[in-house]
Amino acid sequence: MGELSLAFFSGLAGVLFVGYLVWDVLRRDAGSETMVRISRSVQEGARAFLKREYTSVSLLVIVVAILIALAPVLSGNPDLPLGWRTAIAFIAGAIVSALAGYVGMSIATRANARTTQAAVDGGVKGALGVAVSAGSVMGMSVASLALLGLIVVYWIFRDPPVVSGYAMGASLVALFARSGGGLFTKGADMGADLVGKVEANIPEDDPRNPAVIADNVGDNVGDVAGLGADLLESYVESIIASMALAAALVASAAVSEKLMMLPFHIAGVGILASILGILFVRAVGRRNPQAALMGGTYVAAGLTAVASYVIIRTWGVPFTVGDETYGVLGPFYATVAGIASGVIVGFVSEFFTSARFSPVRRLAKSSQMGAAITVTSGTAVGMQSTAVPILVLGVAVVLAHHFAGMYGIAMAAFGMLATTGMVVAVDSYGPVADNAGGIAEMSRLDPSVRKITDNLDAVGNTTAAIGKGFAIGSAAFAAIGLLSAYMVSAGITVADMSDPKVMAGLLVGGMLPFFFSSMLFEAVSSVAFKMIEEVRRQFKEIPGLMDGKAMPDSATCVDISTRGAIAGMLRPGIMAIVVPVAIGLYDEKTLAGLLVGAVVTGVVLGIQTANSGGAMDNAKKYIEDGNYGGKGSDAHKAAVVGDTVGDPLKDTVGPSINILIKLMSVISLVLAPLFVRG
Fold first, then answer.
1. What is the pTM for the complete model shown?
2. How far apart are CA 111 and CA 114, in angstroms?
3. CA 13, CA 622: separation in Å to the nearest integer?
4. Highest mean pLDDT among 76-90, 264-278, 317-331, 439-453
5. Which pLDDT does position 127 carry in this prediction?
6. Theoretical Cys-Cys bridge with 335: which of 391, 415, 532, 589, CB 3.0 to 4.6 Å?
7. Full 3-state SS string of 401-469
8. For the chain, what is the mean pLDDT?
9. Distance of alpha carbon 576 from alpha carbon 94, whole angstroms
């Protein structure tokens, strides 16, 4: 393991830092008996959901692993480079993804009451410190466990096609974690908001609302465990795409080995840089949480860029692909292109979704004209927001290819993802702050406490939008890298547009993200319908509930979201697995066209849905801050409806599309030997 020692010990350092953060969170005061009781309800609901979700997914993982192991026998080709080794790598990727999600979610649900109490005792700085530590457990677990698992799998098998199975396992779990968590949280959120805020005219997170606990559970299983699984998948896939391309394209085995190691080294320094970024946030976050969180992100990105230069200068080598020769620093320039594009995509997401900027303020103003105008304007904001990210990604792809060929595109993807630990930490902080505000409301604490948590939550909404933009941009890069690796593995030099099979694949692939999204929308609507019925029933049938003299039945609402999410995630998930396999068995070039079509429409649709939803969410919060009539006004009611439409866009559909395009690409890469006609 000598050549991977930097990455291995950096991963261990990340795990030790996670241990410190867990200790730092759990040593804090959890508050009053009421706060502890509410927090425990959220913990139990989140654990129950993840148990049922992981049980369902594990059955599918076992079935797929058996099929991969038996592929040489089933295909009648004993020399097929699939089998038990790839199946083991696949299971390892699934386990690591599930483990990281469980660890992060467990600490996030324990940190909510502690964040609330820290706001009581220490104000903004105290609450920010707890929330950031809790979010960082998720972020550093993702980066450290993913890297260590990948190193172990590579060390055992030393075969890039086999190691690709690790990414496929992580991707499969990520799809269900993201879509299932999104279905859970948005079904609960829509029911809580439409009945509570609009019909009953009670505040958000009011303890009389039976769907509030389910909503708080959903924040954790969707935006903590789900996001972590999403970026863990991209993180692993970008490394594996680099490995696969280096192994397939570079004729010299010695040079290929060095190029395969570069992403591991950069991943190692990315973990160390993320640790320093997190410490930066904790040190300077007293007055301006937004500046501290963004500053920590930029510190981590800057340190990673500098360290990447040193690593590539030290361990890199010139390499030749076909007739093109690339210099030692070619991969560095490609990596920087990825880092820069990630920063720009994140800033654009912030511009179109933060109340500090004009698009959201105009959207809030338009809410005075009614819910229909809110939804129309919010949709337009999301559509406008696609232009710059797509142009930036396009330029980054061209630059990365210029400096290092197809290998450079994969390295650009990893450049964007090298600081995954920091990015996930910043994003996972938001749900903790949001839950802390809910506990403050349900515990009837002084309004000044809720003001502190609302301030942190508002920052969290912005960082979440940046995180979603980052996830989509990285998904595009990772999918392009995997697509390139698939085409090389399948012996496809070009997807010929004059070939009717390729054109058919493009059309079908372009359709898939929309069809996939329709299934998720339908599932969210089904869960929300049942949730609304249940909340209305409890308001009517539980004596004294609206007067605050009786407690709601929150467990029933949690169960409705759990059952609905598990049922709703299966159809789109199975489609994402079956379609590339079926098309690949038909024709490998048609599959290449399908992947191209899915990436093009999926990336644009993902950006649009995420930013439309984020803009409508923050327009509502801008009004709640006292603008255009404040809470209870007609503008506020229209914005609540807009937010209810935007919620499944930003938290269910948009994030799940990221994983759809990556999962189909990595399945194609892993199974490429099965698809190629001799």
1. 0.86
2. 5
3. 41
4. 264-278
5. 83
6. 415
7. HHHHHHHHHHHHHHHHHCCHHHHHHHHHHHHHHHHHHHHHHHCCCCHHHHHHHHHHHHHHHHHHHHHHH
8. 84
9. 16
